[in-house]
Design a protein that fits this description.
alpha+beta; Arc Repressor Mutant, subunit A; Alpha-Beta Plaits; 2 domains; 4 strands
Length: about 170
């Protein structure tokens, strides 16, 4: 897909996230000189063309008081991974769930899920509940709490966009 100058301005306007207003796409359009319908149509076209692969939310958990954040890792038989992942993903307190390759002999885990909480003990209990709900309470797992925070931000679409935004 050939990106127009307007497309590039639109992508640049999205780098700081959607504004928290009743009509965020209209506001983004106002910033870019585009109508709300055009913003939506261009974003849809860019998603269909693969220019935009994901459109999601970055939550700053720490600022909201969630300081007991844990990656719960499971050692799941390969033939059960999809079924277990589907069960884990349906739990309201699991924010991410994905498969990763094992790295034997040191790392036997192949299924990961993220649980955010305000207290470590609560997160540990939720991890236990998750294992039970997914039918894997008997399988090896570990609860790995975050020790440091990394900068969370949305995507950056290219170095030239900041200059175009200022123009």
């Amino acid at each position: 897909m050939e990106l127009t100058t307007a497309d590039r301005r639109l992508l640049a306007a999205l780098e700081d996230g959607l504004p928290l207003v009743p009509r965020p796409y209209a506001e983004i359009g106002r910033r870019c000189g585009l109508e709300e319908a055009t913003v939506l149509a261009r974003l849809r076209a860019m998603a269909e063309a693969g220019v935009i692969r994901r459109f999601g939310l970055v939550v700053h958990h720490h600022a909201l008081g969630y300081r007991a954040n844990a990656m719960v890792v499971f050692e799941v038989p390969e033939e059960r991974v999809q079924e277990v992942a589907a069960r884990l993903s349906r739990l309201p307190y699991v924010t991410l769930c994905y498969r990763r390759p094992r790295r034997p002999p040191l790392w036997p885990y192949n299924l990961f899920c993220m649980i955010h909480g305000k207290e470590r003990e609560r997160v540990r209990r939720l991890a236990e509940q998750a294992a039970e709900a997914a039918g894997i309470a008997d399988l090896p797992r570990a609860v790995l709490f975050s020790r440091r925070r990394f900068k969370q931000r949305g995507p950056r679409y290219g170095t030239g966009l900041a200059a175009e935004r200022a123009a």
